[in-house]
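Lecture 7 notes: from sequence to structure.
We start with the chain below.
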Amino acid sequence: MTIERAVQFIKGGFAFRSGKELGFSSPFWQRGFSEVRIFDPEQFARVREYIAQNPLKRGLVSNQRECLYASARGGYELDAAPQGLKPMTVNLDRHV
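Predicted structure tokens for the same chain:
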């Protein structure tokens, strides 16, 4: 399955349920999507922060804790960063 098709299923399923269960009307999603590949821990942190800031930038909430379905609100257990993106520990006692 392509990433485009997977995203189509996710967006379609969520849009259907949000309409049925929460009363949201369509269109719920913007057209299309962009795939972003993460190559290092710094980029992972930037993208994570970008996502967390979206509700604030759009004026949907005045602070992140108001966003009912965001991880910033708390009460959610987040997945760990992918193994290749985990920050390296730095030994400051090391003599060069």
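Points to note: Residues 36-76 form one domain. Helices lie at 3-22, 41-57.
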